[in-house]
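Action item from last week, closing it out:
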Amino acid sequence: MSVFDCHVHLDQLPDPGGAIQEAQRSDLKGMVAVGMDLNSNRSILDWARRYPGFVWPAMGYHPWSLTVSGIRETMDHIRDCLDQAVALGEVGLDYKVSVPKEMQLWVFKDILELAWTSKKPLIVHCRQSHAEALELVRKQDLEKVVFHWYSGPMDTLKKLLLAGYYISATPALAYSPKHREAVAAAPLKQILIETDSPVVYQGQPSSPAQVHKTLAELAAIKGMDLEEAALKTTRNACEFFGLG
C-alpha cells in the first residue's frame, strides 16, 4: 500500500537520511518536509534536492520560532525560495506559548498574503487559536488549507470543512478523544495523514515510516479497508499539494 506522509520535521530527526530510506522501504510514495525557521527551511530544501520526487519541501515559519531579529531574514528567504516549495508551512498561531500574540498575528497575516499571491497550499498550526486562525484564513480567501493535527472545537471544524479546507490525522488518533472526534466527523476527501515526526507518541519517537499507524487508525475509525484508505488519502495528498 502506497501512502504519503504529509507533515514531517525532517531536519529534527536524528538521522534524516536513514529515515528517508526507511520510508522508501516501507512503501511510502513521498513526504512533505515542513519548515520551522530559516535554518530548517534551508535544510529541507537541501534534502528535497537530494531526494527529488520523494521529499517535497514546504517553507514555513512556526509561531514557536518567531524572534524579532529573525523575522525579516526568514520571510525574505521564504519569498526568494517559495517557487521551490509545494506549500507554505508550518505556520500559524499558538496562544499557549509565550511568543507575543501581536508578533504571531503580524507574521501570520504576512504569510497569508503570500499564500494568496503565490497560490501555494497552506499548512496551519493553531493551538488555543482555532477560531481566530480560521477567520483570518477565510478573510484571505485562500483555496487550499490544511489544519494540522486538528483537535479543536467541533463548531470551528464544521466551518472549516464547509469552507472546503482539510484537516490532518496523526498517530495521536490512537489515544486522543478530541482528535478522533474531529477525524470521525470530517469527510475522508478532506483528510490528509501524517506523522509530525519526530513527535513522541505514548513514549515512542515517530518516523515517517510510521504513517502506516495513522492510516490504520483512520481506516478503523472510518470502518473501511486499509487499501482503500491508503489510495484515497494518497490521492488527497497529491491533489492538495499539486503533485500530479
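Closing note: The longest strand covers residues 87-94.
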